[in-house]
Amino acid sequence: MPERAPQPVDRQLPTDEARDLISLVRDIAQREIAPKAAEEEDAGHFPREVFTLLSESGLLGLPYDAEYGGGDQPYEVYLQVLEELAAARLTVGLGVSVHTLASYALAAYGTKEQQVEHLPAMLGGGLLGAYCLSEPASGSDAASLRTRAVRDGDDWVIAGTKAWITHGGIADFYTVMARTGEEGARGITAFLVPGDTAGLSGALPEKKMGMKGSPTAQVHFDGVRVGDDRRIGDEGQGFAIALAALDSGRLGIAACAIGVAQAALDAAVGYATQRRQFGKPIADFQGLRFMLADMATQIEAGRALYLSAARLRDAGRPFAKQAAMAKLHCTDTAMKVTTDAVQVLGGYGYTADFPVERYMREAKVLQIVEGTNQIQRMVIARHLAGPETR
Ligand SMILES: Cc1cc2nc3c(=O)[nH]c(=O)nc-3n(C[C@H](O)[C@H](O)[C@H](O)COP(=O)(O)OP(=O)(O)OC[C@H]3O[C@@H](n4cnc5c(N)ncnc54)[C@H](O)[C@@H]3O)c2cc1C
């Protein structure tokens, strides 16, 4: 049985422009991203040059307004671009998703003046963003964050520590949620902070299980001073802005998860059609054939789920419940499929000679970021049964 080369995913795309976009992304992924992924992940190298190329190719602001340098693409197209990037290398797919998340607050809640001044550089000017909600003592309970912003004349002075920040220490701009008032969700305000502001510093990156090329670090705010013109939205609106950003961001994580799962399935099919035991390819054994069939079915279901949530968003309809479902289902699928892919490769799957062990380590983080999958279940249940009684 000849090794089966992976077929490109047969995508439903709404326009010729979207089809061209996917071709461009596949080309960049095959030429510039996938060939270096294993080596650079091993070395913990962040491919900043890839993000510069993506920016130059118009791929860092896809779902935003063309008037401000965005790509004017619907989420159903943007997410399929993310899936392709994540299949080539999760550090890149997730990085684009986080950059889009970090740009959301200003794009959706900024004033016209703020958007004109800052968005073109953020969406198409080569800048890279970070989103700062989590802190050492507040993860799932994000509304208990302690980083403070205190008014000083026309300025705000920010002090505190953010934790687990993707692109922490290397980003050009940080969307920061800080406490400006009372305890709880209503006392939080959002700010756009330039990366080179005095008093802002990134700690050493965390030593992670996977995605080692993607820097994740604490970011310290030591008397960071920004003007009131860098406040996004109203005072006290920051937590609502942060959650609205996450509704869309979770769709990005779902798409990245399906990309990693698809890459793992492709590797497993390729191997199973080559490897021979008991005188025939292992892909001939029903035990493995059914496993591959289940993996493919879960991936297809996950893709359909994130696209259905994206199409609701594109139609201007509520989509928060469906985004949480997509994040939950797609990331659990990525964990299951990548684990099964290691099994299909047997002992070789457990070595760094094949990419599936990396995919398995990478899939794990997707069940944790942008709200753990326990938190996604809480969000879904609230839509079904209302808020928990205290
Ligand atoms: C690689 C990486 C990148 C990240 N990037 C960013 C970023 O760019 N910006 C950012 O702001 N944050 C980022 N995060 C942080 C991430 O969002 C948090 O790790 C996540 O929200 C969970 O918070 P925590 O780690 O403090 O866990 P905790 O909140 O302490 O949770 C620990 C465990 O308890 C469970 N749990 C907590 N509360 C409940 C509950 N009510 N019911 C049931 N179970 C519960 C959780 O599901 C989890 O299993 C990143 C994290 C990682 C690992």
Describe what this molecule looks like in 3D.
The chain has 390 residues and is of the alpha+beta class. The chain folds into three domains: 16-124, Butyryl-Coa Dehydrogenase, subunit A, domain 1, CATH 1.10.540.10; 129-236, Beta Barrel (Butyryl-CoA Dehydrogenase, subunit A, domain 2); 240-385, Butyryl-CoA Dehydrogenase, subunit A, domain 3 (Up-down Bundle), CATH 1.20.140. It is built from ten helices and ten strands. Strands 1-4-5-8 form a four-stranded mixed sheet. Strands 2-3-7-6 form a four-stranded antiparallel sheet, with no helix packed on it. Strand 4 (173-179) and strand 5 form a beta hairpin. Helix 7 packs antiparallel against helix 8 and helix 8 packs antiparallel against helix 9. The radius of gyration is 21 Å and the shape is globular. The N and C termini lie far apart (61 Å). The model has no long low-confidence stretch (mean pLDDT 97). The chain binds flavin-adenine dinucleotide (FAD). Residues 98, 131-134, 139-140, 164-166, 208, 216, 365, 368-372, 374-375 line the site of flavin-adenine dinucleotide.
Give a brief description.
The chain is α+β, with helices and mostly antiparallel strands.
Main sheet: strand order:
1-4-5-8
Which compounds are bound in this model? flavin-adenine dinucleotide
Q: What is the SS-derived class?
A: alpha+beta
> What's the tally of helices?
10
| Assigned CATH superfamily of the largest domain | Butyryl-CoA Dehydrogenase, subunit A, domain 3
Which CATH class of the largest domain? Mainly Alpha
